[in-house]
Amino acid sequence: MLTALSIDNYALIEHLDVSFDTGMTTITGETGAGKSILLGALSLVLGKRADRSALKDSAKKCIIEAHFDIASYGLQSFFEQEALDYSNETIIRREIIPSGKSRAFVNDSPVNLDVLEQLANFLIDIHSQHQTLKLTKTEYQFQVLDALAGNQSLLEKYQETFTRYKQGNKELDLLRLAASQAQKDRDYNQFLYDELIAADLQTDMLALVEAKVQELASVHDIQQSLAAGIQIIEAEEIGLLHLLGQLRLELKTAIQKSADLEGLPLRLENLHAELTDIHSDLQMKSGGLESDPEALALAENQLQNIYTLLKKHQAASILELIQKRDFLETQLENTEQQQERIAKLEQRTAKDEEHLTKLAVELREQRHEAIPDLISKMENLIAKMGMQNARFQIELIPSDTFLSQGQDQMEFLFSANMGGKFGLLKNVASGGELSRIMLAIKALLSKYKKLPSIIFDEIDTGVSGAISDEIARIMTQMASYMQVFTITHLPQVAAKGSQHFKVYKTIYNEGTQTQIKELNKEERIAEIAKMVSGKELTPTALEHAKELLN
User: Fold this and answer.
1) Is 160 exposed, middle or buried (0-12, 13-18, 19+ CB in 10 A)?
2) Which of 3, 106, 282, 358 is such that its CA lies 20 to 30 A from the CA of 264?
3) Annotation: CATH topology of 1-129+458-519
4) CB-based contact 342:348 (threshold 8 Å)
5) Is the pLDDT of residue 102 over 80?
């Protein structure tokens, strides 16, 4: 409930502080006294856009502050979601500086207007003849029917499942699209991967294959070189082995006669052994060396394949090709895992769909049971407000798709006259009829769900007599379930309030100010008497006012 309102430097208000009680509060005042200014100030604190034209004194800041008791609204999760400090006594403040810019605060934490408007929807409902359009919205009509049907818990389960179902389908669409593209890429990636696997890549293989190709391609030249080398070693008289033997003989005498040459025999012996080994190796290599065109072709193909892979993958080394192979392997594994994720998500979504269907059927059944009761209560209420011949029809039309409120679409039909044709409420009801219907609906809803504080802004305009008495009675009944404010020109309505404020203008320092005052019992009698008879307080009007208050 709204417990207090403070206004500084707004429109015709210089300063105002007012406190409110539970139950029904009536606000009266002459036309032009400034009742709409109060609503305007409250609208600002609830998130309406503002500019510097709202300032009474354009050189000063405008501050509007509203205190709310929100203990019974269950808004802790909203405050957590928006990172706001929660308090049962919550204070909303709106400031407008002379430049026209504004700031908003909830419990001293700055908020943007979107958050403020969301919070305001839980706290205040300003209802006027011009604000009944939501009554014609299907979403609101379902809220009314479901409240009477007691569908709140069932609807929460449905909407929780519906949200998960929609999210699952959205995720499935994205996964399937990605999987479709991945499948197109998969065949090509598999081909590239198989190519790299077949190449049996090793980090040092390029140099080895290049050497092998060079050797196999040069067999004849190598054979010639080896043969020439063998000839140089083993030729008679001029071969290296023969000449080495001659050297040993020539140096034999010198070695025997010179101590400085004692180490030469061993060195000559080692040289002879090494030359003999080289001769043996050359003979062995020459004997095993032969032309192999088939092996050469295989080696050349292997080398060309490596060159092709390096070019195809724009790699500078075998190591980069190995890294590319491993990456492709991961991609192929991910494609397989993606299919597994799709399968699991399809199973979950199918279960959600089955559950949704079951919940939607339960919702429909309970709605059908509640429709006659809703129609009866609505027709009884509006009959008391002067619409004795008005009739309602509510039709539920099954839908093939899941909607936010189930698998039903609704047609809320209305006929204002006996025997008249039914038409969609939004098409056939007048503004005055919508206003009374809305009052009836709010009166019904107040018994079944926690509603925000409601402000009726002169919705009783144009009615009088017994109808005004009934409107006042309905508002009074609502006030037993919720906080009700009514701005009215009707004495019958004004007399029903447990708290009564009068809005009036005063002249101060050659300027006009709007003031508000809570009336005591005697002041209420006088105010209601004026509403009955005009400005002149007659004994009859005063007696009538006392009767209304009693």
Assistant:
1) exposed
2) 282
3) Rossmann fold (3.40.50)
4) no
5) yes
What are the residues facing 505 on neighbouring strands? 514
Q: Per-residue confidence at 501, pLDDT binned at 50, 70, 90?
A: very high
Residues 364-381 have a mean pLDDT of 95
- Of 115, 93, 117, nearest in space to 104 by CA: 93
How far is C-alpha 518 from the geometric centre of its chain's CA atoms? Answer: 46
In 108-151, where does DSSP find H-type helix? 113-123, 138-149
Domain ranges of the chain: 1-129+458-519, 204-316
Nearest to 500 by CA among 481, 524, 522: 524
To the question of pTM greater than 0.90 for the whole model, the response is no
Residue partners of 214: CB distance under 8 A and separation at least 6? none
d(CA 81, CA 114): 14
What confidence category does residue 218 fall into, taking pLDDT thresholds of 50, 70 and 90?
low
524 by Cβ neighbours in 10 Å (0-12 / 13-18 / 19+) ranks as buried
Task: Determine the Cα–Cα distance for residues 210 and 315; give it in Å rounded to an integer.
Answer: 17
- Report pLDDT digits (tens) over 17-69: 999 999 999 999 887 777 888 888 888 988 888 878 888 888 899 999 999 99
